[in-house]
Amino acid sequence: MRIQFVQHVPFENPGAFVRWAEERGHASGITRFFAGERLPPPEAWDWLVVMGGPMSVHDEKDFPWLVGEKRAIEQAIRAGKTVIGVCLGAQLIADVLGAHVYLNDWREIGWFPIRWTPESRALPLFRAFPDEMAVYHWHGETFELPDGATRLASSAACLNQAFMYGDTVVGFQFHLEMQEENIRLIMEHCAHEMTPGPFVQTKEQMLDGARRYVGEIVAALYDFLDRFERRSTQ
What we know:
about 230 residues, alpha/beta, Rossmann fold, 6 helices, about 30% helix, about 25% strand, globular
């Protein structure tokens, strides 16, 4: 299987997604639209994993490559490809599916719990996730649930934390892929976003959370990806 990642900034890489692909013997590549790269043709890859980034889905004037990326995501969904979005990636999928992406009431930055919905509990893909778990967040925007999508998770600060559209498209507003190195990088490059608020942690709290929670969330991510792989190859 070949996985194609879309990366939006140099410091926000696929993290544990790539580690999983390597350990499972899957080929992978990274497309950086911001560097002028083009996505390989759809027949060259099986999964499209769209990562996070500090820009908004609405910033097409400042980042004109977003137009082509949205078109590529839409084509992948129409072609029935497996598409996974993380943070900005989930917002881009929601936007492509016609849902409104807008400023959330609160910035959510750090380790905060999400609660999985009853609908998610009925889906084997998410069986490894406990009903409530701490995950890593870094976002100021959110999205409406796309028409036809199923809400999978919510948090105190954000109603739509995850969704599934059809059988092959999943969006996570939060980060399951980040290890301590990834967290240090985003704190370094996006420190200006850490303004005081009820859902914004300090650097020390975030690093402490990394030591406590990374093992659990990466194990859950691996289980989810293993189940998705088995289903998509049946």
